[in-house]
Amino acid sequence: MNKKSLKPIIWDDEKKELILIDQRKLPNKLEYFICKTYEDVAYAIKEMVVRGAPAIGVSASYGMALAEIKNEDILNAYNTLKNTRPTAVNLFWALDRCLTAYKNGRSILEEAKKIHKEDIETCKNIGIIGEKLIDDGDTILTHCNAGALATSAYGTALSVIRFAFYNGKRIKVIADETRPRLQGAKLTAFELNYEGIPVKVITDNTAGFLMQKGEIDKIIVGADRILADGTVYNKIGTYSLAVLSKYHEIPFYVAAPLSTFDLTSKEEDVIIEERDEKEVAYIDGVKIIPEGVGCYNYAFDKTPPDLITAIITEKGIVKPSKDEILKLFNK
């Protein structure tokens, strides 16, 4: 890992506390949020102190561990954490692993540490595998934040970008601002700039114009849930980019760990999270729409597989089709 790399999730074994970078304060302040109880972790997930599918899963697993350490009701902790956010599948995957460990008489804390360690290695492997798709001199567009701040380290989409950069490829990154919470402007730009990777921020509605001008070579995004047929659920605005990339014949890649795949749900089973209208109506406390006007605030959208060039995982690169995805899991 680059010596300047951020550590968004830290477990303090001595104090038995979970330490999270408070992503609500970035990029202006690098502050930490201390979780001493599973309720603290639930708050951190719900209020987006921590966000990004893998990071949510790892944090939730430590939330379960905190309940175990304090001899609290494990099922209550499980249900509280499970109900924080509905779309990202890693949350449920990690909680189920911890609950299974508990039912089998194993330590939840050790399982959480294992999930944490696995996530770091997984993200590293996504970068090592995916960077082969990047050419020297590429300009890459990314959306939201699928970086170290969304995982335990490296990221998913940004891991691909990082390893291309680490391997000496002269790349440039363009980050969509990603309204309404501006994860691209505040988080992606922060962590890439922190490591010295060239990055520029654009408004979300600039992406199509840059594609039209021929200034985007590839698009790489993360994912919060991927169905067995390759349908991808990711931050709102992903679908729009995929449609634009198809029209302009630009490769559109999704980078995600196997834990983000949901092989059992159908599209009608997936709940698209709707968040508070205030996130759209206000920017940094300043209201930008007229009084009495409502807002839509969907947190995610759905991108069909025919708009996706390939999915980059820690076990290889696959086409977004049911046969290819199941073949990967059967390995």
TrEMBL record:
Keywords, in A-Z order: Amino-acid biosynthesis, Initiation factor, Isomerase, Methionine biosynthesis, Protein biosynthesis
GO biological process entries: L-methionine salvage from methylthioadenosine
Keyword Isomerase: yes
Domain of life: Archaea
Active-site residues, as the UniProt record annotates them: 224
Short name of any one Pfam family annotated for the protein: IF-2B
UniProt key word Signal: no
InterPro entries, per the entry: IF-2B-related, IF-M1Pi, IF_2B-like_C, Initiation_fac_2B_a/b/d, M1Pi_N, NagB/RpiA_transferase-like
Xref: SUPFAM superfamilies: NagB/RpiA/CoA transferase-like (SSF100950)
Residues that, per the record, bind substrate: 51-53, 85, 183, 234-235
EC numbers: 5.3.1.23
MF terms (GO), sorted A to Z: S-methyl-5-thioribose-1-phosphate isomerase activity; translation initiation factor activity
Substrates-to-products reaction catalysed: 5-(methylsulfanyl)-alpha-D-ribose 1-phosphate = 5-(methylsulfanyl)-D-ribulose 1-phosphate
UniProt site (Transition state stabilizer): 144
HAMAP family: Salvage_MtnA
Task performed by this protein: Catalyzes the interconversion of methylthioribose-1-phosphate (MTR-1-P) into methylthioribulose-1-phosphate (MTRu-1-P).
Family of this protein: Belongs to the EIF-2B alpha/beta/delta subunits family. MtnA subfamily.
Entry protein name: Putative methylthioribose-1-phosphate isomerase
